[in-house]
Amino acid sequence: MPGRNRYLPVEVKYREQISDRDTQMLRRFQSRYLKCVRPILVITKSWEDFGNAVAPNDTREVFRWPLPLFLIMFG
Q1: Phi–psi pair at 46, nearest 5 degrees
Q2: Is residue 4 situated within a structural domain?
Q3: Contact 14, 42 (CB under 8 A)
Q4: In a domain? residue 58
Q5: How do residues 26-43 score in pLDDT, each as one tens digit?
Q6: Cα 15 to chain centroid, rounded
Q7: Which of 3, 20, 33, 71 would be a feasible disulfide site paired with 75, CB 3.0-4.6 Å?
């Protein structure tokens, strides 16, 4: 069945600024379940934090999404 055993890790970081260290646990989860996890989704406070953010020396994708947009889509 398509979509089985797929994960979308989501973490809410309702702060003014988010560093790469804030997504460390999500990245560890993604490394462990590499075949099951696509992008990491981080819900942020700032409207400017929309889009992909890749940490230096890291190929794993982090997608930042402002909380109001997330609530509109999934609320």
Answers
A1: -85, 135
A2: no
A3: no
A4: yes
A5: 888 888 877 777 778 889
A6: 15
A7: 71
